[in-house]
């Protein structure tokens, strides 16, 4: 039980302090607005609220404020008491339900709310909230939107593979003895051939390297791996370009559907000809 109390107290202090910091409150400025809204509170109260669970001089532990005060603090910061005490990681229980229903993280739901309320769009966005809601609605319900999401995921995967490729050279090198590997790297371009025009070309002999069976096998492994790496590099680059093209194509399909004639009134603040 003591561990649970300690964890809740620690969470309370951390989250209350975080909320004050996010809103640029000092204890003094916070107290001023809190008193204006709820008609009570002192500097000493705030100090205690921020040190719940701490030991004081007489050996006692600072307890939680009254439940009424906890409700006031939660209301002041527009969060739930459960968020302050660590019962939930969501600021509001409504947010928790929305996240569970939509299968999104809190930042995703907040982003949607910011658009539908107009708050995150521009300074006067709240006056056009209905229009922004309609824009988002027609984008999400566009017949090509799920294709856009699917293609976006594929594009991300292709970019990831391009930036974090699997190296066949490293895999091949791991199969070769260390005392052979360095020499095999040096001899990857060596040739030992003969023809009527050029006669015998023996890079091994010319460089005083004995072409043992182990060395030749190591060179073969490295050369094959190098070819694989080159081919896959070209393939990865091509896949990224293709994904970009497909993504852009679907994007313009969504835009085309967005501006269908029947959609326009919902997304536009209508203007009227005053002379008519």
Automatic annotation (TrEMBL):
<feature type="domain" description="HTH cro/C1-type">
    <location>
        <begin position="54"/>
        <end position="84"/>
    </location>
</feature>
<dbReference type="InterPro" id="IPR001387">
    <property type="entry name" value="Cro/C1-type_HTH"/>
</dbReference>
<dbReference type="GO" id="GO:0003677">
    <property type="term" value="F:DNA binding"/>
</dbReference>
<dbReference type="InterPro" id="IPR010982">
    <property type="entry name" value="Lambda_DNA-bd_dom_sf"/>
</dbReference>
<protein>
    <recommendedName>
        <fullName>HTH cro/C1-type domain-containing protein</fullName>
    </recommendedName>
</protein>
């Amino acid at each position: 039980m003591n561990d649970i109390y300690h964890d809740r107290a620690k969470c309370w202090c951390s989250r209350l302090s975080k909320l004050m910091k996010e809103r640029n409150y000092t204890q003094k400025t916070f107290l001023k607005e809190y008193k204006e809204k709820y008609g009570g509170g002192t500097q000493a109260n705030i100090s205690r609220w921020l040190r719940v669970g701490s030991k004081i001089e007489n050996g006692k532990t600072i307890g939680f404020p009254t439940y009424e005060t906890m409700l006031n603090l939660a209301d002041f910061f527009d969060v739930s008491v459960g968020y302050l005490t660590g019962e939930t990681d969501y600021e509001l229980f409504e947010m928790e339900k929305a996240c569970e229903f939509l299968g999104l993280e809190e930042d995703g739901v907040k982003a949607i709310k910011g658009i539908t309320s107009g708050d995150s769009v521009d300074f006067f966005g709240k006056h056009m909230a209905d229009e922004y809601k309609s824009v988002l609605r027609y984008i999400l319900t566009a017949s090509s939107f799920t294709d856009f999401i699917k293609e976006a995921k594929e594009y991300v995967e292709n970019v990831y593979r391009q930036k974090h490729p699997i190296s066949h050279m490293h895999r091949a090198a791991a199969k070769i003895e260390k005392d052979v590997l360095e020499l095999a790297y040096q001899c990857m371009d060596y040739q030992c051939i003969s023809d009527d025009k050029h006669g015998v070309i023996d890079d091994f002999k010319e460089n005083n390297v004995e072409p043992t069976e182990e060395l030749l096998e190591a060179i073969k492994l490295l050369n094959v791996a190098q070819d694989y790496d080159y081919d896959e590099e070209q393939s990865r680059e091509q896949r990224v370009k293709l994904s970009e093209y497909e993504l852009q194509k679907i994007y313009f399909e969504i835009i085309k559907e967005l501006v269908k004639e029947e959609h326009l009134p919902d997304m536009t603040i209508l203007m009227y000809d005053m002379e008519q």
